Amino acid sequence: MKRFLRTTTCLGAFLAGVILVVDVAWAQVGFFSPDGIPPVLTKRTQIGSFDAHSAGQVAKNLERTRGTSFKAYIDLGPMITRSPAPDSLKMRYTTGDGRIHAKEFLPSTNNKLRVFLPDRELRRVLKPVLSVMARYRANIEAVELADEPYINGISKSELERVARIIRGDLDANGLRSVKLAVVFAGGMFNRDFAQLMDRHAGIYAAGLDNYFRKGQQRDSMAFKTWVAQIKKNRLVTYDRAGNMYVGGGLPKGFDIYGFDFYLSTLLLDGLHEDTLSWFAAHDLGKGCAQFKGKPMSQLRHKLSFFHDGPVLQGDHYRVDDKKLLDDMYQCRMSAVTEMLVHEAQGSRARLLMLTESSNNGVLEFDSGARAEQTQPVLLVESRVLDEVQRGEAFYENHLCTYSAGLMFFTFNNVYDSSIKLNIGGASDMPAIMASIDSFAHKFAPGGAGWDRERNCQKTGTWERHKVANHTYH
Hints:
The chain is an alpha/beta fold. It has helices spanning 41-44, 55-63, 77-80, 119-135, 156-172, 191-213, 221-233, 237-240, 263-268, 275-281, 296-300, 315-343, 377-397, 430-442, 450-459, and strands at residues 2-7, 14-15, 18-19, 29-32, 47-51, 71-75, 81-82, 92-94, 100-102, 115-116, 140-144, 179-185, 256-260, 350-356, 405-409, 414-416, 421-423, 467-472.
C-alpha cells in the first residue's frame, strides 16, 4: 500500500505540502519530430525534439535554429543505446493469474529493448556530437538519453548512472545550461502501473506460446508459415514480457520529466486492455469511474470507426465518438498526470506534456482493429483535430503543472511497414496546423496566454489546490 495525495479539483503541482518550483520564461509549444526539425517549425513554434543519429545530422538540424529563440530537445538514444544480446534477456514471464511461464520463442536479434553502450564507447560516440552542441548551445533546451526507457528494459539505476556520465561530459564542454530530460511510456514510472503493463505483456506472450504448444497439424505448411512469421514479425510485446523495468520511481539527476500516452496507444496496444478500468479501480483521474470493469476491447467497439463494412454515416456517430474520446482523454491524461506529480514531489524538475497530432488512432478500422486501406480523409482529419484540441485544452488547464511545455507527435507523415499504411502527421492536415499555429502563438511572449503564465510564476504557488488523502495499491 502507498500513501498518495490526490487533487480533488483541477490538478496542480502541490502535493504533501511540497511545491514544484520551476523557472520558465514562458509557455512553450512544439513538436516531437523524430526525423528532424523542419525549418518552418523554428519560426512557428518554440520547442521541438528530434532523434540524433550522427554529429553531422545533429549539426544540420541545429543550424536551422540559428538566429531564432527556438529550443531543441535532442534524443541521444539512437546513438548511445543498442539492442541487448538475445541471450541476456529473460525467457520467463508472469501472467495476470500470477503464474510464471517459459517462452517458446527465442528473443529477436534486433529486438526493441535497449541497453546503453559501454562507457568508453558511449563517450567516443558522443564526443563529436558534444562539439557540435557547443556551437549551438543557445538553441538547445535538453538531451534525452533513451526514449521510454522503463518499458524498453532500462532500469532506474542505469539511467541515473549514465545521466551522471552525460552530465559530466556536458559540463566539461561548456553545456551546463543543457538539461537532462526523460519521457516515459504512460505511467511506467509508477511501480503498480508498470506491473500492470508487464502482466499484459505476459498475457500476449502466453497467447502465442499456448497456440504453439497446442498447434494442430504441426507438420502442415500453414502451421510452419505461422511459426516463421511469429519468429520474424511478432510484436515487440513478446520480448518485453519479463524484461521491462517495473520497479518504478523517477530517476535522479534529470531536470525534465514527461510521459506519452497517445490515443493510438490506448486503442491499439493490448497492454492497455484494462488501463482505464485500473485507473477507475484506484480512484485516479477525472471521469475514470465510468470505465471501471470495462476492457478496451469492449470500449473500442463503441466507436463508429471500429467496425466491418463501409463508413457509418450520420452526425450522431461523430457526436457519440467525440464524447467517448473526450472522456478517455480526460481519464488517462489526468490519471497519469496525478501519478507523475506525486512521483516528482519535492523535486525542482519541470514537467513536459506530450499529446498526439497524427491520424494513427482515428483511422477507419475493421472489427479486428486492422486499418482499412481506403480512408475518408476529411472525416479522419476532423477526428485528429478533436484530439489536438483536447491536448490544447488540457495543457491550458494545467499550464503551471506542465511548465516545460507541450509537444505534439508528430509533424511529418511516416510509413508504417508493419501495417502497410501511410500515417499522416500534422504537416499534411491544414486544420491541425492552423490550430497548433494559433495555440503556439497564443503562449508566445505577448500572446493572449502570456499574462496567465506570468501570474503563475509570480504567485509561486504553482496551482495550489485542495488535496485529500488517497490510498492505492
